[in-house]
């Protein structure tokens, strides 16, 4: 191969690399509560990718355009508290060039509003309006909540989400139905994390459980103390008999993978415009 041809091949090679590196990814912004951002403490890191990474990886496998997924969820958030908050202004409003937004809010609203049926739609519509203003080019989708409360309560929340979607002309990603169907088939605790106070577990297991243990500040009637938190069902045979082991309804890794896969299936039907 002569010198000129070698130079031409190298130029083509580096041009191809540069082009592939500069392909614009579709930017997806996730807005929600702790069931979006996750609630595993820093001391107890879950194995494998979290929701945003799982969505990116599945998108590539399923042949969708490359995604950049930004998880802007925050624990304890309500539509009322989020709007105008420091978190909103710093982590949501400032994100540039957003193409798609998924808004999943309602669990904390259910617990904190005095008149949920009246106040929730008002707060959600105000939040939706602000998201449109801050990200005018983005396609906004609503999403139903996960099975956090008893099914009848979740259905009441989700019915309002569908009503808001219809009134605001927004499509709704249904997470609840496949999530709840999975629970029916695989057990009511198959998609949630496990946790309890370390003091409830016999001393002989404490050293062994160190990778799952962290110190948690108390709130409400819950005292300060060391807590064991597990992101799957691997320790159920050993500790499943302990009272409160299954109480936390936040998704575990399996739950988040289900949410990610439902998100990808939804996007495959709705990304023709991108």
Record the SSE blueprint.
Layout: H1 3-21, E1 26-32, H2 34-37, H3 51-61, E2 67-71, H4 79-82, H5 86-92, E3 100-104, H6 107-112, H7 116-134, E4 139-143, H8 151-168, E5 172-173, H9 176-186, E6 194-197, E7 213-216, E8 225-230, H10 236-239, H11 253-270
Parallel strand pairs: 1-2, 1-3, 3-4, 4-5
Antiparallel strand pairs: 6-8, 7-8
Helix pairs in contact: 3-11, 7-8
List the domain count as a whole number.
Answer: 2
How does the helix and strand content classify structurally?
A: alpha/beta
Question: If you average the pLDDT, what whole number results?
Answer: 90
Strand content: 5-15%
Largest sheet: 5 strands, parallel
Low-confidence stretches: 1-20
Radius of gyration: 22 Å
Question: How far apart lie the N and C ends?
Answer: 42 Å
Description:
The chain has helices at residues 3-21, 34-37, 51-61, 79-82, 86-92, 107-112, 116-134, 151-168, 176-186, 236-239, 253-270; strands spanning 26-32, 67-71, 100-104, 139-143, 172-173, 194-197, 213-216, 225-230. The strands form two sheets. The chain has a five-stranded parallel β-sheet with strand order 2-1-3-4-5, sandwiched between helices. Mean pLDDT is 90; it is low at 1-20. It is built from eleven helices and eight strands. With 274 residues, it is an alpha/beta fold. It has two domains: 25-192 and 251-270, Rossmann fold (3-Layer(aba) Sandwich); 194-247, no CATH class. It is globular.
